[in-house]
Amino acid sequence: MQATERKLGRVFHLRFEAGDDFYGEFNRFLKEKSIRGGSVFVFGAMNQMDMISGFKSMKGYDVDRRHFGDWRELVGLGNISWPDKPPAALGEGVTWTEPQPYVHIHMAMSGAPGRNEEVLTGHLSGGLVKGMFADVYELV
């Protein structure tokens, strides 16, 4: 095991508005505030959502990408980093000329309205907000 001591920096509470592009707004905020690392907790609902699930197998990554066009509630926990190159989870063909914020969120989401028995877990890949907040804990 390896350990790195970090300290809690700034703490932000973000309230997203209906129709916001979640990652578009979130990444803009991270750049504006120069948050280079931290943890994030999200809670709310999205009108549209993209999710990635999968695992690493002997053949490489077995990835399942899904789009949901009906609104769903979600709760998620993740981390914020600025890698030098785009992570594989962003898909093929994504290129950066400089490091960018990467927010990796593990989430659980509800089924569509009236389908409470369908609960899914995975990684939040994108979406349009219905109503949501995020708490950001900067680590320095």
What would you say about this model in short?
The chain is built from one helix and six strands.
Cα shape: globular
* DSSP strand tally: 6
- Report the radius of gyration as a whole number of Å: 16 Å
Number of domains: 1
Structural class by secondary-structure content: mainly beta
- Give a short account of the largest sheet: 6 strands, antiparallel
CATH architectural arrangement: 2-Layer Sandwich
N-C termini distance: 21 Å
> From N to C, what is the helix and strand string?
EHEEEEE
CATH homology superfamily name: Hypothetical protein, similar to alpha- acetolactate decarboxylase, domain 2
Number of helices: 1
Q: Per CATH, what is the topology?
A: 60s Ribosomal Protein L30, Chain: A
**CATH domain class:** Alpha Beta
Write the topology of this structure:
Layout: E1 8-16, H1 22-33, E2 38-57, E3 60-68, E4 72-81, E5 102-109, E6 120-139
Antiparallel strand pairs: 1-6, 2-3, 2-4, 2-6, 4-5, 5-6
Outline the structure in words:
With 140 residues, the chain is mainly beta. The chain has one domain (21-54, 64-139): 60s Ribosomal Protein L30, Chain: A. Helix content is 9%, strand content 54%. It has 1 helix and 6 strands. It has one helix spanning 22-33; strands spanning 8-16, 38-57, 60-68, 72-81, 102-109, 120-139. Strands 1, 2, 3, 4, 5 and 6 form a 6-stranded antiparallel sheet that branches. A hairpin with a 2-residue loop joins strand 2 and strand 3 (60-68). The two termini are 21 Å apart. The relative contact order is 0.35. The model has no long low-confidence stretch (mean pLDDT 92).
